[in-house]
Amino acid sequence: xxxxxxxxxxxxxxxxxxxxxxxxxxxxxxxxxxxxxxxxxxxxxxxxxxxxxxxxxxxxxxxxxxxxxxxxxxxx
Length: 76
What we know:
about 80 residues, about 0% strand
């Protein structure tokens, strides 16, 4: 990380939180349990498994990790 006061340290996390609020938590939740469940499902079912990420070559994070693991295993 960079030094104190560098605004670029927070940019990736703030971008993710903005995406989370837009795609998952667009309305208030009735309870904390409901919020926890909705965010868990968003992250584990949608964001990591199905949502395509441009920075990963338009594949999901799960698929990207699998491709990387396959590549590493084929080298050995």
